[in-house]
Amino acid sequence: MANNLDLDLRCYESMVVFDPDLSEEDFNKAIGWVKGIIERNNAQLLKVDLWGKRKLAYEINKKREGVYVLFYFRSNPEFIEELERNYRINSNVMRYLTVRIKDKKCQSLLTE
């Protein structure tokens, strides 16, 4: 049975499109930066899914490609505002979208 703290946690996925011109080292630092934000805010990182470099639907900052990364995590709802604030101030983040995922998908991530 879940404790009271777990009842406040919800599952989210956050898709982040990073600048394709980042070196491999800088890209790994950017991934670590997001992981650090999640962990410092008492959220639970469940999975990181690297989609790699893909063509964008439209040009962003004069770039036609971006590096897509999908982060799955559990947190309280208030954390999303802080996470997206950090995305906005990082120049390596071209676009982002964070959405709540269904409990069924969350359970499958928790059992992986």
Break the fold down into its secondary structure elements and pairings.
Blueprint: H1 4-8, E1 10-18, H2 24-40, E2 44-60, E3 63-75, H3 78-89, E4 93-100, H4 103-111
Antiparallel strand pairs: 1-3, 1-4, 2-3
Overall description:
- It contains 4 helices and 4 strands; from the N terminus they run H-E-H-E-E-H-E-H.
- The protein has a single domain (about 10-105), classed as Ribosomal protein S6/Translation elongation factor EF1B (Alpha-Beta Plaits, 2-Layer Sandwich), CATH 3.30.70.60.
- It has about 110 residues and is α+β, with helices and mostly antiparallel strands.
- It has a 4-stranded antiparallel beta sheet with strand order 2-3-1-4.
- It is about 40% helix and about 40% strand.
